[in-house]
């Protein structure tokens, strides 16, 4: 996990995402937009309640410290990778496919960005986070069907973050929302630093 976070910070530094993450970008009442409102609502009112209704500690002790470390580290580092993947699709790939300034580019570039983001976010959760980091955390009797187990809410939240970034270039707010989501999830499932270490050794 430390290597994953390190990669995220390197990517953020290389693409100048981290230098833009400063106090000068903090949202105020004058800069709060509908994109911020949509992202805040989809994260705190839709996605978080949905996942909290599914999670259980299965007897593990909840740790505020571990949840804070995880939420800050992952909320920043993974967001850097998410933004880079979105830009890879919406900017670089779009320029390869469409003529500069074409109407197709305007409407399809964000879709390419989302597809590139999804091509990373899906596998990293199914191949890394779920089997190697997170302990057993779904409640007994919870619906095992993947598309019913929070996927629609997760997609809505992810789309809202990408819209927020694309419309406002506000990486700070995306990181903060990611931290909030990570903290609530980590705390509710009883994620602890020792359990992360032992899980990675298995």
Task: Output the keywords.
202 residues, mainly alpha, 71% helix, disordered C terminus
Topology:
Layout: H1 2-14, H2 34-52, H3 64-97, H4 103-133, H5 151-168, H6 171-189, H7 193-201
Helix pairs in contact: 1-3, 2-5, 2-6, 3-4, 3-6, 5-6
Brief synopsis:
With about 200 residues, this protein is mostly helical. Helices cover about 70% and strands about 0% of the residues.
Give the percentage of residues in beta strands. under 5%
Shape: globular
Number of strands: 0
Q: Helices and strands: which structural class?
A: mainly alpha
Please state the average pLDDT score. Answer: 84
Helix content estimate: over 70%
Radius of gyration: 17 Å
pLDDT < 50 runs, ≥5 residues: 195-202
Distance between the termini: 14 Å
Structure description:
The chain is mainly alpha-helical. It has one domain. Helices cover 71% and strands 0% of the residues. The protein has seven helices and no strands. Helix 2 packs parallel to helix 6.
């Amino acid at each position: 996990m430390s290597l994953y976070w390190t990669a995220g910070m390197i990517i953020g530094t290389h693409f100048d995402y981290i230098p833009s993450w400063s106090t000068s970008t903090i949202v105020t009442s004058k800069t709060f937009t509908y994109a911020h409102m949509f992202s805040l609502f989809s994260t705190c009112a839709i996605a978080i309640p949905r996942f909290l209704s599914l999670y259980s500690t299965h007897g593990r002790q909840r740790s505020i410290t571990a949840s804070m470390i995880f939420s800050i580290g992952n909320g920043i580092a993974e967001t850097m990778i998410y933004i880079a993947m979105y830009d890879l699709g919406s900017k670089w790939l779009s320029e390869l496919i469409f003529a500069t300034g074409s109407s197709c580019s305007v409407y399809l570039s964000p879709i390419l960005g989302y597809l590139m983001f999804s091509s990373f976010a899906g596998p990293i959760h199914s191949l890394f986070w779920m089997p190697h980091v997170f302990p057993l955390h779904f409640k007994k009797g919870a619906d095992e069907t993947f598309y019913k187990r929070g996927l629609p809410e997760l997609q809505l939240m992810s789309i809202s973050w990408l819209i927020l970034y694309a419309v406002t270039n506000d990486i700070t707010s995306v990181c903060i929302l990611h931290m909030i989501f990570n903290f609530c999830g980590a705390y509710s499932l009883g994620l602890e630093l020792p359990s992360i270490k032992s899980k990675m050794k298995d």
